[in-house]
Design a protein that fits this description.
Strand 3 and strand 4 form a beta hairpin. Helices cover 44% and strands 15% of the residues. The chain is of the alpha+beta class. Strands 1-2 form a two-stranded parallel sheet. A two-stranded antiparallel sheet has the order 3-4. It contains four helices and four strands. It is elongated. The protein folds into two domains: 97 residues, no CATH class; 48 residues, no CATH class. The relative contact order is 0.11.
Length: 147
Amino acid sequence: MSRVLFFGRQDCSYSDDAFKHLVELGFEVRYIKSNHRNEDLSDDIKEWNDDNIDSLLKKTHAELFKLFQRITKGLFLNKDNFLNKKLNAEKNEKWNGSAKKLSELNKFQFIDSKITSDELARRIRAFHTNDYPLKIKLHGYVFLLKK
């Protein structure tokens, strides 16, 4: 059985539906409900040490494709009713904070030389991939992190 660490929004029916779908598919799911961005994670997340950003991205992409299939099928078979049902289900949802731009996220790729070891470990786990490695700029040179 595959394990999935799933992050969803608190009081979001889409997150709840995605969670139920993962369970129906037979995944062992740890569901983390988030109230806002930059929320601290509980200590029990540390049990997921065997996953990393690359493995989570693969799992996420597979589930996003399945969700894409469900949505396109719903639109094809019953466009107006499907859209209205989805829109009404989420009409009271409120987002906290502002959306991040890609340029803002890209800044996390660059490591300051004064970074703490704990923050470096968090950044490696959250942002480092072979395709998008963490970097350090030093005296006009850019150094890439390799595992």
